[in-house]
Specification:
This protein has 27 helices and 24 strands. By secondary structure, it is α+β, with helices and mostly antiparallel strands. It has five domains: about 60 residues, Orthogonal Bundle (Helix Hairpins), CATH 1.10.287; about 240 residues, D-amino Acid Aminotransferase, Chain A, domain 1 (2-Layer Sandwich), CATH 3.30.470; about 90 residues, Beta Barrel (OB fold (Dihydrolipoamide Acetyltransferase, E2P)); about 170 residues, 5' to 3' exonuclease, C-terminal subdomain (DNA polymerase, domain 1), CATH 1.10.150.20; about 70 residues, 3-Layer(aba) Sandwich (Rossmann fold). Strands 14, 15, 16, 17, 18, 19 and 20 form a seven-stranded antiparallel beta sheet that branches. α1 packs antiparallel against α2 and α13 crosses α14. The C terminus is likely disordered.
Length: about 700
């Protein structure tokens, strides 16, 4: 026996949770914070676990999803679930044709008043029959073949927008509500983002998401995929007086707490339908969920009965479809486009297909990760989507239709080891999504970007060489690389827009002045990926000369303050590209110059150019620590003693190497001697460069 007050508390909790569910999922107006809702929910769960006799069939705790099923039981529909005829005509005449047919069937002529219609959205999900007995949801079924569907009650329980109990004190004996379960676009996106993060498979589109969720044998999985629901009709009804019209029926369902879409009208004649159609078509992409058209229905239920059915379709309703936003087509090839920043974007060339109102012949595949995730291959049949003004997209490959033998997976780098625009090497840096052309200074695709960056205030600071001028210079073929800027003269500039004598002269002066650069500015101006202003300064400070930077190995670069493997790789790849070196040479030949220094290693390292050999065990320093210190001071550590050895650093139990040093007369240091040498170096810091 539960303690007094427990049943009342459970009932109160149930009622309160239902109220919050309705506010949140149907009215879209949350009433309490999530944490508070969770607390109420857990309290009810605990009460029901402790007192199983208190659990009711309509308790909100059932929404978490029950045990996995072996399969779905068949459900014979009390009233067949029919489908509706589709007007293939996508123009306004679809509504007129429907109106004309209805009037003819009803025996109306021109002198009779217009017929009243209801118009609503054609939701793109899965048809569901909800059976309420005495106000409690007892069964949910799919449409199946119209006569027999599948019992998906457990999964439907997880759809919070669907009331488990009708909101009425006098519930009908039986009320079957029919409508569409679907996934909102934001829920779809959120779900996919979560899946992607977890490295799990994503949903192809919201409709597949809805269908997959409902037909999921594990209700706990279904609960992970958030669905919504809108009612659009009735099935079996007992003990409920039907309203006179379809629109009043939907109003009544809304009163009972069933979600009904507010995007609907009732109006007179074909004109009202045409207006609704056009209005919805114009706003299709702004709706929070996918629709594939609109549905027109004769509003009066008595007229619906009079019109009846022909074969398996009602004469009183018709679907007017919008142009499909998804179609199947085949991938003829995968090419790449090179963007302003050098990214190679893969593009699928498609067999032409009419989708979303236009003929689509190509669609972006974004990057290699996206290709891998969707596993799109040349020759594949793919689903192409184009919604509104959004650029066409390959949604998924239809793997079952893949040609045999299977085409190989597509790799951008394998197919395009070189940039298709300029022939420079293409690379993909660790941690980056994009494959990129390394010919930044040379590649025509990156020309404008490279020039603007080169001329920027913090780079070569060529005042007056802005967007518009760069456009003109590049489009007229006057400038191809930054080196060409130094070949411009008053004569060539004179022919350009807004290049009156004075501004042309100013520009030439600015170009001339920029030749006296600093190494840091010049390095920054090259536009090496991942090398910003600060890194450029660090590089200039460290190496002191451009040639030393160009010659630097990855290990050399990693010694520079704040430089990690990715930046080091970017620099190596940039200077490994002959096209870039060619431009650098031309810039120098054009007179661009800067003061150079010996850099950190040479100017500061007291051991610069010296070779040391370590032998024996040093009192405090490990072998590695000693080596590191010697290298930091510019020295090299060798393994054996020769005439070229400058110092041997000897610790305890030094053996043959020490003897060899004595024999050759090489200077011998102990640890203290080495540290003293290095200390002298630190006091001598003089890597001052004028930036
Ligand atoms: S009325 C007897 N209204 O479209 C008439 N159907 O064949 C029953 N659908 O799979 C259908 N939105 O699930 C109706 N506002 C709407 C609808 C709608 C979507 C679906 C329905 C069925 C198909 C019609």
């Amino acid at each position: 026996m539960p303690a007094a007050g427990v049943p009342a508390r459970a009932a109160a909790l149930r009622q309160e949770i239902e109220r919050h569910d309705y506010a949140y999922y149907v009215l879209d107006a949350p009433t309490i914070p999530d944490a508070e809702y969770d607390r109420l929910f857990r309290e009810l769960q605990a009460l029901e676990a402790e007192h199983p006799e208190l659990a009711t069939p309509d308790s909100p705790t059932r929404r978490v999803g029950g045990k996995p099923l072996d399969g779905f039981a068949p459900v014979r529909h009390a009233v067949a679930m029919l489908s509706i005829r589709t007007e293939t005509d996508t123009e306004a005449s679809g509504a007129q044709a429907f109106d004309a047919r209805v009037r003819r069937e009803l025996g109306l002529d021109e002198s009779d008043p217009p017929v009243e219609y209801a118009a609503e959205l054609k939701f793109d999900g899965l048809a569901i029959n909800l059976r309420y007995e005495l106000g409690v949801l007892v069964q949910a079924a799919t449409r199946g073949d119209g006569e027999t569907g599948e019992d998906v009650t457990q999964n439907i329980f997880t759809v919070h927008a669907i009331p488990l109990r009708l909101n009425t004190a006098a519930p009908p004996a039986v009320l079957e509500v029919r409508g569409e379960a679907f996934m909102r676009r934001d829920d779809f996106e959120r779900y996919n983002a979560k899946q992607r993060e977890a490295g799990k498979p994503t949903l192809v589109n919201p409709r597949n998401g809805a269908a997959g969720s409902i037909r999921q044998l594990d209700p706990a999985m279904a609960a992970q995929r958030p669905l919504s629901f809108f009612a659009y009709g009735l099935g079996e009804v007992r003990g409920w007086s039907l309203p006179p019209t379809h629109s009043a029926t939907l109003d009544a369902l809304a009163e009972l707490g069933v979600p009904v879409c507010s995007e609907r009208i009732a109006g007179l004649g074909a004109a009202a339908l045409v207006a609704f159609h056009d209005d919805v078509a114009a706003r299709r992409d702004q709706l929070p969920f996918d629709i594939d058209g609109v549905v027109y229905k004769v509003n009066r239920l008595d007229l619906q009965r009079e019109l009846g059915f022909v074969t398996r379709e009602p004469r009183w309703a018709v679907a007017h479809k919008f142009p499909a936003q998804e179609q199947l087509t085949t991938v003829l090839g995968i090419e790449v486009q090179v963007g302003r920043t050098g990214a190679l974007t893969p593009v699928a060339r498609l067999a032409p297909v009419f989708v979303g109102g236009v003929t689509v012949t190509n669609a972006t595949l974004h990057n290699q990760d996206e290709i891998d995730r969707k596993d799109v291959r040349v020759g594949d049949t793919v689903i192409v989507r184009r919604a509104g003004d959004v650029i066409p997209e390959v949604v998924a490959a239809v793997v079952e239709r893949r040609p045999k033998p299977e085409p190989p997976r597509f790799s951008i780098l394998q197919s395009y080891p070189l940039c298709p625009v300029c022939g420079s090497h293409a690379v993909r840096l660790e941690g980056e999504a994009a494959v990129r052309c390394t010919g930044g200074l040379y590649c025509p695709a990156q020309r404008k970007q490279a020039l603007l960056h080169f001329a920027g205030r913090r780079a070569m600071d060529i005042d007056g060489l802005g967007d518009k001028l760069v456009d003109q210079l590049v489009e007229r073929g006057l400038v191809r690389t930054p080196a060409d800027v130094y070949g411009l003269n008053l004569e060539t500039l004179a022919g350009l827009d807004r290049m009156a004598g004075k501004s042309a002269a100013n520009l030439i002066a600015a170009i001339e002045a920029s030749k006296a650069a600093t190494l840091a500015r010049f390095i920054f101006a090259l536009g090496i990926r991942n090398v910003g202003e600060t890194t450029a300064k660090d590089l200039a400070w460290h190496f002191g000369s451009l040639d030393r930077l160009i010659a630097a190995s990855e290990a050399d670069l990693l010694k520079v303050r704040d430089i990690g493997p990715i930046v080091a790789q970017s620099i190596i790849q940039f200077f490994a590209e002959p096209h870039n070196l060619e431009v650098v040479d031309k810039l120098r030949a054009a007179g661009v110059r800067w003061p150079e220094s010996t850099g950190v290693q040479q100017s500061a390292g007291i051991l610069a150019g010296k070779t040391l050999v370590l032998t024996g065990t040093l009192p405090t320093l490990t072998r590695d620590a000693a080596k590191e210190k010697i290298e930091a001071a510019g020295g090299k550590v060798a393994g054996s003693v020769s005439k070229k050895t400058d110092y041997v650093v000897a610790g305890e139990e030094a053996g043959s190497k020490l003897a060899k040093a004595q024999e050759l007369g090489v200077a011998i240091l102990d640890e203290a001697g080495l540290l003293a040498l290095l200390a002298a170096d630190n006091n001598n810091e003089q890597h001052v460069l004028d930036f």
